Each structure stands twice: as structure tokens, then as C-alpha cells.
Amino acid sequence: MQAYIDWLSRQTGKRYRLLSEAEWEYAARAGTSTKYSFGNSEGGLCVYGNGADQSTNFNWRNKSCNDGYGNRTAPAGSFKANRFGLHDMHGNVWEWVDDCNNENYDGAPTNGGVWSSGDCSRRVLRGGSWYSKPGYMRSAARYGGHFTGGRINFVGFRVARSFF
Question: Which of 7, 36, 78, 95 is most buried, by CB atoms within 10 Å?
Fold first, then answer.
């Protein structure tokens, strides 16, 4: 992942990086204070995100949706963008942020920066995935403790461009 970010930065002449956990949640909420960027109803996930739905056999699936992607990721931008114009903030793949793993968000930096203390061999994931039940696709949902090595088909990352 870092190799890709470094490559992208070299190719474009711009500096790219992973988002901090605070930046990710700000982007996901898109100016709202509701469970999801579109409100509190899980029904909106059918339009805004790729999560476990009718097409899966998971007990935790959202039975009101069938997005046609089943047990796999959807192409980026397949679902409606939030108010900030960002796609796939709810579901599709859990997104790796740059913060080190901490049990909860109490004590996190108040300036929106990366939390660089804690268990840095594990990182925080945000947003839920195609494998997730609706509760894990909330703007505030976080999954901690993902190892920094290896691959898994429901984890990805989103880059941000630094302006400074």
C-alpha cells in the first residue's frame, strides 16, 4: 500500500497519504451527525453502499437490499456519492486509515491528525465492506486491530492529497 502511495506521488508530483481516522470520519459524515451520511435509516444503504444483502447467505445481511454484487466488491463509484461528492464511504471495502490501533477513540488527537501511539503493528479500518451488516457501515463504526501485512478481499484504502 505505501509503495502505491509513493508511486502515485512520484507519478503526479503531488504528495499523497492515507487519511487519519478523524479525516476519514469527517469525509464519511459529509457534514451530518446521523448514523450514515444520508440519515439514520438502514434503507439508504441500498443506494449509498455495498454491504451484505439479500444476495448473501449471511445471517446479518440487510434483507431490504439486493445490489447485485453478492460476496464481492463493486467497481468504485457504483453507488450514490455523499454530500461531499465521495463514493463508497459506506461499505464495499473496509478502508485502512493511518492511525495506530487503540481500543477506542478516547484520547485521540483533537487536531484531526494521525494517532501515532498505541499498537502500530495493527491499524484501524473504517466504513464496513460488502461483508458487513448495516451497523458496521455507520459513519462512526471502526474496526481495530488489522495487521499491517497480508491481503484480504474486503479491505482496501483511500488516499488523500496533501496540500502542505
Answer: 36
